[in-house]
Design goal:
four-stranded mixed sheet, alpha+beta, about 140 residues
């Protein structure tokens, strides 16, 4: 985990296979007002999501509550959505999913689902960024 507030997150989840790295970069303002980027690379989506949420959690003490609240709103609004991405109770992650295997990790006060594809990981990233009021962009638009 890093110190300091950030103003943007850039992600790259495209590609398949064990050699593809899922990446995200956190943009922070330095003392001169310029953006500096910290790059994170992971081979699995589960590790990507774990560190992504760890970084988001550094922005505010209330971030996890807001993140879970947004996820709950999405879950109750969309009747086709069969699972939550973040919940205080691990059993609530796949409440309407039937026999779907629950794979999750503990994050501060919550459980985060990890058996998702790249598209769903992007949805989780968007929800997290909405919760923190941080801009989300594609890492491919940056030369890092």
């Amino acid at each position: 985990m890093s110190d300091g507030a950030f103003h943007a997150v850039h992600i790259s989840l495209a590609g398949n296979g064990p050699s593809h790295q899922r990446r995200f970069a956190v943009a922070r303002r330095n003392d001169a007002g310029r953006s500096t980027f910290e790059l994170f690379r992971h081979r699995t989506l589960a590790k990507f999501l774990a560190e992504f949420v760890d970084e988001l959690e550094t922005t505010s003490a209330e971030i996890m509550f807001r993140f879970a609240q947004l996820d709950e709103e999405e879950f109750t609004r969309n009747k086709r959505k069969t699972r939550r991405y973040l919940a205080e109770d691990r059993n609530h992650l796949h409440i309407n999913s039937g026999p779907l295997k629950v794979e999750s990790i503990g994050v501060p006060g919550y459980w985060l689902v990890t058996n998702v594809n790249a598209e769903r990981a992007g949805v989780i990233a968007r929800l997290g960024c909405r919760a923190t009021n941080v801009k989300l962009d594609c890492l491919l638009n940056r030369k890092l």
